[in-house]
Amino acid sequence: MGILGAEESVRMELEELRRMLVACAGLQRRKDDEEFKGVRISAKGIDTDDAERLVCVTSGVSYLGLAIVNKLLLRGYSVRIIVESEEDINKLREMESSGEMRTSNNNVSVVMAKLTDIESLQEAFQGCRGVFHTSAFIDPAGLSGYTKSMAEIEVKASEAVMRACARTPSVRKCVLTSSLLACIWRDSSQYDISSSVINHGCWSDESLCIDKKLWYALGKLRAERVAWRIAKETRLKLATICPGLITGPEFCDRNTMATIAYLKGAQEMYANGLLATVDVNKLAGAEVCVFEAMDRNAAGRYVCFDEVIERDEAETLARELGMPTNKICGNESEGVQARFRLSNEKLSSLMTRTLRYCYGEC
């Protein structure tokens, strides 16, 4: 790994990238201000050291990665973003939005590291208090969105990130983004009504994922399992977030491959009441919430979703993706009776407690 800036041209590219990222956060701040219509919330109970914390976000070029960066900046963190190539820098440039450049802000830095190289990651993590690992691998062929080989890379990256976290003295905790797909793929014929709730304690069946060629689900499942194994071995504080299909502004264009990969098996998920979505900004907020609550005993897995897709939502989603509705919900003309029920009660409870702790009763 090398911290970008060895050559003047690359240094200038990084500085331009840093300004762009801070500008994006500034735009998001203005949007949040408009949403709250001028209301300011007192930072009662927040650790005064929070503003000085340095955290690292992997896959900073990803749809979710950039949303997490923005949330962290709004919370007063300094953020180090990992990119893997100059192509990643170009991708970030494409995300640039028009607006005021906040060039006086110096709380964003960018480093280059290989996500499967432990030593490279260790150097990138130096001085960081925590790490957000948001893997964003795609199929080089650009067709299926995610192949079996991508699942293997996902696992290697997860292992390398966890090992690097454990070996970096400054890193105290890690939040890993898994997927709801790591929870829901099970043989439904083996479960009765008493086990119909799918929550943070559920794990997908690896053999079933392989049989159905659900490589995205398999990659997320194996990557999360290896992360938990290493966390237990090294006593690293870990939390994992298992989100539904990530949607939000321009998600079809900016998160195309992951969306296509997630929807493999969509008809079966829909029929079982397990096809759920989550807005990217709400997910990013949940990740930061969990990260901060880890200092107050938050731990384990968290299922994150906004809504379970029904017929009307399926039609809207299909229209946004430019695909026939039956690709998502089959040929059912009406809603179906779901066999399972998703629960995000653990995360909802945590976020409610956190709001009370940080801001007091409203």
Secondary structure tally: strands: 12
How confident overall, as mean pLDDT? 80
Shape: globular
Low-confidence stretches: 1-10, 24-51, 97-104
Overall tally of structural domains: 1
The fourth-level CATH homologous superfamily is NAD(P)-binding Rossmann-like Domain
Topology of this protein?
Elements: H1 8-35, E1 54-57, H2 63-74, E2 78-83, H3 86-94, E3 108-112, H4 118-125, E4 130-133, H5 148-167, E5 173-177, H6 181-184, E6 197-198, H7 206-211, H8 215-234, E7 237-243, E8 245-247, H9 251-254, H10 256-262, H11 266-271, E9 276-279, H12 280-293, E10 300-304, E11 307-308, H13 311-321, H14 326-329, E12 341-342, H15 345-359
Parallel strand pairs: 1-2, 1-4, 2-3, 4-5, 5-7, 6-12, 7-10, 8-9
Antiparallel strand pairs: 9-11
Helix pairs in contact: 1-2, 2-12, 4-5, 5-8, 12-15
How would you describe the overall organization of this protein?
The protein is an alpha/beta fold. The chain has a single domain, classed as 3-Layer(aba) Sandwich (Rossmann fold). It has 15 helices and twelve strands. The chain has a seven-stranded parallel β-sheet, with helices on both faces. Strand 4, helix 5 (148-167) and strand 5 (173-177) form a beta-alpha-beta unit. Helix 1 (8-35) crosses helix 2 (63-74), helix 2 crosses helix 12 and helix 5 (148-167) packs parallel to helix 8 (215-234). The radius of gyration is 20 Å and the shape is globular.
Annotation keywords:
362 residues, alpha/beta, Rossmann fold, 7-stranded parallel sheet, 3-stranded mixed sheet, 15 helices, 14% strand, globular, disordered N terminus
